[in-house]
Design a protein that fits this description.
Blueprint: H1 12-26, H2 33-39, H3 44-48, H4 54-74, H5 84-101, H6 103-111, H7 116-120, H8 124-142, H9 154-174, H10 181-198, H11 203-218
Helix pairs in contact: 4-5, 4-8, 5-10, 8-9, 9-10, 10-11
């Protein structure tokens, strides 16, 4: 009597890799979960175990980028000793290195729909994570401040960090410099500026950032 063989367990990371390969090879989002699963020889139940829809897996990919970035950052034994500014710089540098490794997918994902807002919907989960990360940095810095008037608003700073991220993301998408070195320059200047804004000494760095961006637009 034949016995039923136990199917190999499929992980969420494997399905994410299948999805990213699928959209890059076919240059289109799968029309249905059924078709996607059939193409990759997996059961629909395997997909739905981790993701509720195509939009669900799209959001999960960005969350994976974030969690992988945080994991890499904490592998640096000196990370805990970094200043809040250094931690934010490390996050931006590491995250955009992660995006560069997956640039073909990221460009496809953010350009698949004609309406930009539809493409940005997949970033909702990432937005929560980045804002929480930024808020934690500010709250940590506020612990050492004795007077309430000198403490920074975590909610305001976290929103600023998200807007800064979106600005750098758009710059990176359009960056054609070797090794995306101009994106690295924008990260350094923009993060320095946002921290200086909260330290009430922004003018010189805002002017410096403005000059750099003007030069890039005119080049």
């Amino acid at each position: 009597m034949a016995t039923k063989t136990k199917s190999k367990k499929i992980t969420d990371n494997q399905i994410i890799e299948m999805y990213m390969d699928y959209v890059l090879e076919h240059e289109v989002v799968p029309k249905s979960i059924y078709k996607f699963c059939k193409t990759n020889a997996i059961e629909e139940a395997d997909f739905y175990k981790y993701f509720g829809s195509v939009v669900g897996i799209q959001k999960a990919i960005w969350t994976k980028f974030f969690t992988s970035t945080i994991g890499l950052m904490h592998k640096n034994k000196e990370y805990d000793e970094f200043s809040n500014k250094e931690k934010m710089l490390t996050f931006f540098y590491t995250f955009f290195e992660m995006l560069t490794l997956n640039r073909s997918y990221v460009l496809f994902a953010l350009n698949q729909e004609q309406g930009m807002m539809k493409n940005l919907a997949q970033l909702k989960g990432l937005r929560r994570h980045i804002k929480a990360f930024a808020a934690d940095l500010i709250e940590d810095g506020n612990v050492d401040k004795s007077f309430k008037i000198t403490k920074h608003n975590p909610r305001l700073f976290s929103e600023g960090a998200w807007l800064e991220f979106m600005f750098v993301l758009k710059f990176w998408m359009d960056d054609d410099s070797a090794g995306f070195e101009k994106t690295d320059m924008v990260i350094e200047k923009s993060i320095t500026t946002i921290f200086d804004v909260f330290d009430n000494t922004p003018l010189d760095n805002i002017i410096d950032l403005g000059k750099f961006l003007f030069k890039e637009k005119m080049a």
